[in-house]
Amino acid sequence: xxxxxxxxxxxxxxxxxxxxxxxxxxxxxxxxxxxxxxxxxxxxxxxxxxxxxxxxxxxxxxxxxxxxxxxxxxxxxxxxxxxxxxxxxxxxxxxxxxxxxxxxxxxxxxxxxxxxxxxxxxxxxxxxxxxxxxxxxxxxxxxxxxxxxxxxxxxxxxxxxxxxxxxxxxxxxxxxxxxxxxxxxxxxxxxxxxxxxxxxxxxxxxxxxxxxxxxxxxxxxxxxxxxxxxxxxxxxxxxxxxxxxxxxxxxxxxxxxxxxxxxxxxxxxxxxxxxxxxxxxxxxxxxxxxxxx
Length: 293
Description:
Helix content is 50%, strand content 11%. The protein is of the alpha/beta class and 293 residues long. Helix 4 (61-70) packs antiparallel against helix 5 and helix 7 (136-146) crosses helix 8. The relative contact order is 0.12.
């Protein structure tokens, strides 16, 4: 008999919770176990298992270990990655970070919050400098040009929030960033030539950080796998199975959480990376474009 579905179907899930729940559902199906059997292992009701698999509730480490034991998970790496993801989700749910004071972030709030607990980001950008690398003048010019806001104070608040994100590049737990930036983004004169010279100089300075890798995809490559648009792959554990893909559209922020979608975008990123210039050559091109301006 199917378990009774919980009445609070509108309960909010989290991105990390859905990812973790999806992984546990996949493991349960592979083990041939039912939600009732999972509930028995947890000394709980099937409703709790439904909530876990839908990402509605945080998962305690003891419960996660019980479920993995039931599902026959013997690989310690898989368990450790699931525990890391569960902890990141719990931290995200209880966090009231600096981003909460910036309603101007709108649909990007969840991305910024997850960026704060992520261990690594791989980003491919076709037309813009990645947000983590933008100078205030560049960020301001980009959003004035986009025409999303007319209130100067609101734009300044957004710029302030964007720059605050960059604290993750340094400090006690710096995030690892691998960025592939198309040459077009280097040459698009956002804010004018003075702004772009400063922005390109900032990029060169960032390449000196041990946790930052910047590669440029030159025009001469021609057609390539990443021409469909930019995206970011966010990691919360060592295993690629814990990765998620983020797409930023003009009107919304989209997360791709399935293993298939993630693997597809990782493959695109890897193919684009093979065509991109080495880091030394990338610095030379950034410097040359700056001098041309």
